[in-house]
Design a protein that fits this description.
By secondary structure, the chain is an alpha+beta fold. It is 21% helix and 20% strand. The protein has helices spanning 9-12, 18-27, 38-52, 84-87, 89-95, 98-108, 195-208; strands at residues 29-31, 79-82, 112-123, 134-137, 152-157, 168-171, 215-217, 226-229, 234-236, 245-254, 262-263, 269-270, 296-299.
């Protein structure tokens, strides 16, 4: 198992520098060097096509209530499919590349990185399609049952990805804001909320923090990826190009993250899809270190 987490000399050169880590801490996002070869990216595309055609290495034993799971009958909308690292070994082989975890560990300043979720995304070249627009949000709202404040996400496009394709766009430095307007509704997924309300909420939070909204589109060459902090506001526009925007959002947790009960104002306990799938800890809580669903991607103890 130990050799799984070894990096080559060439890979060590691809890790974030001290300056990069400081940039991430200040801005809440980071653009990597080329972590995947062109051949690896092409392999991701091919594996995703097999997945869309119905190929599975295994299937979830049940479908949690808030699972994102596009199927052909849903039509030519933006596709989101969770748990692809569990269901498809062809995708998992590449998404579990130790180098990705090592980069995340540097940015999060963590000794261990585990996968939290992987979502395969396909944004069709239909700028008029409402589902193509991802409104402003930050991921921590949906991870209220997690104890960690260091969780982060790698956005991994399968091609050159720029503004025309509706690339992910960050609100610079927003992970450092003190939040205002937080209520029960913020625990809802962005797809369940009004886009204009979320735009207003973003502006209100910027004003509350005495700053302005600075939107930075991620221009990502093939084989590169972006990372963002779990409290960094982000979103994306429609795909105005002539081809689909293909990507994976790889959500990552540090080794110290655990489940915690999180209640709304009416006492309703909100959780995460994992809570219906993962094994239990000795004291009966969902185990966010379950190796089937939350495998270790990197640990410094092995390097």
């Amino acid at each position: 198992m130990a050799e799984q987490f070894n990096l080559t000399d060439e890979e060590l050169e691809l890790l974030p520098s001290d300056e990069d880590v400081a940039f991430y801490a200040a801005h809440g996002w980071y653009l990597t060097k080329k972590l995947f070869t062109d051949a690896e990216v092409d392999e991701l595309v091919e594996a995703s096509e097999r997945f869309y055609a119905g190929e599975r290495s295994r299937s979830l034993p049940l479908r949690p209530r808030r699972l994102a799971y596009w199927e052909p009958q849903h039509g030519d909308v933006q596709r989101h499919n969770d748990y692809v690292h569990y269901e498809h070994d062809g995708l998992a082989k590449l998404l579990r590349k130790p180098l990705i975890g090592a980069v995340a560990a540097r940015l999060a300043q963590a000794d261990e990185i585990r996968i939290f979720q992987s979502t395969l995304i396909f944004k069709p070249p239909r700028p008029e399609e409402p589902t193509n627009v991802v409104p402003w949000h930050f991921d921590r709202h949906y991870w209220a049952s997690s104890t960690s404040e260091r969780m982060l996400t790698a956005f991994i496009p399968f091609h050159d990805c720029g503004e025309e394709m509706g690339t992910i766009t960050m609100v610079d430095g927003s992970h450092l804001w003190q939040e205002t307007g937080n209520d029960d509704s913020t625990a809802k997924h962005f797809a369940e909320r009004d886009k204009e309300d979320l735009e207003v909420l973003l502006a209100r939070n910027a004003e509350f923090n005495g700053t302005t909204v600075t939107k930075v589109p991620m221009i990502i060459p093939k084989g590169h990826m972006s990372f963002h902090h779990c409290r960094t506001y982000h979103g994306s526009a429609g795909n105005r190009s002539d081809r689909p925007r293909r990507a994976v959002s790889l959500h990552l947790q540090d080794g110290e993250n655990q489940y915690r009960p999180y209640a709304l104002s009416d006492g309703t306990v909100v959780g995460y899809n994992h809570d219906e799938l993962v094994r239990r800890t000795p004291d009966g809580r969902p185990d966010y270190a379950d190796p089937d669903y939350c495998p270790v991607l990197w640990t410094s103890a092995q390097h």
